[in-house]
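Sat 14:20. Reprocessing the chain from the morning session after the first attempt stalled halfway. Input below, unchanged.
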Amino acid sequence: MSRDLHLEDIESIRSLLFNKETSQQEILKSCYDKIDSNENLIRAWETITPIEMQHLEKPNDSLSGLCIGIKDIFSTSELPTKMGTCEINWQMNKGGFDSRVVATLKAAGAIVVGKNKTSEFAVHKPTDTLNPRNPELTPGTSSSGSAAAVASGHVSVSIASQTAGSITRPSSYCGVIGFKPTFGEIPRTGVLKTTESFDTVGIIGNSISNIESVFEVVRVKGRNHPIHYNRSVTEKSELTILIAIGPTFDSASLWLRKKAISFVNLMFKHHKIINLENFSKINFLKLRECHNEIYAKEISYFLKNELSLDDISVELKNFFSYGKSISKFKYFSHLDFLNSQRKLSSFELKNSIIFSLSASDQAPKIGEPDKIDANLFWTSLGLPQLSLPLLKSKIGNPIGLSLTGSKGSDINLLNLGKKLFPQYTDV
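Finished this time. Tokens:
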């Protein structure tokens, strides 16, 4: 039996359970043994449910045997939610209920191992989590614990969130797969709200297959949700291949840009590949400013009560103050512009795939800032984004390449990822 049984593809786990070749107890022990082997070094977890307190569901549910982590901004009934802060008002907080995504996962048989570390109120302040690929480099910020837990082999899936690049960038830094769905595809009930306009629940995983299995369970779907149902219809026409790599989108080196573009050209040598700037009328320069100011304004509103807490960092307080200084007129003007750009993207990008860098470089050294990348564009426009660890830096550290699809094309995007890059389909 595999030492890392808990990391197998969910379909393989279901088969093993059905044929009674293993048990959920054995899978759980594999998971906890792996965490015990190096968590004292990686520090990916804020809290972990003791193994003896795990209540295993029936072994024939769709996600039975799947061990998952939850970013510590999602309410869980058994564990405290600290929101990435040590403030006493949050440290002992128990919501008394599961967020909707957690409840859905549990109902499908998934095993919630614990809560992954996140930055202060899921914004900018780094955690003490180390990058499993290279401990001298940062694992990212907001979803760093989630990415590190997957990269360490602690779990095969962690539920995370993205407001700018919080899933994609840590996934790139840690060399794992990150999936940010279409805005609104996974419910946000019971999750810390930093913005109304951008917060998106997503998934970090060790295979596209496992991510897709989880997504199919937790996403909003069916005829009771007509907007989601109608836009999930499979497109039949040929894909338009677009590249968003260059000064407008990222701050990567010329070497990395050429490497990424060459990779895409090789994959689609029989397709016409178009530069997104030449294809689209979206105002990317203004969209970056728009995202920053909407983010600041909305976080200053949703976290206004936390602003007075003593343990809040100076950096976050300054961001709050900046948000408060933005006038309502300017804020609503930004919202109007954002909505116009989202409508434009829905029209222009239908049945398109955009390739971009998930990060503008390998992970920076601990304490150094991130480079500007393209992730906030796809978050702002509400588009689904799949980051795969397809590139490497000159010294061999991982860098992700992102595939971004049109609104509602999530399943098609995941299927394309499996088709183009089968090495990331199964563990």
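The longest strand covers residues 385-392.
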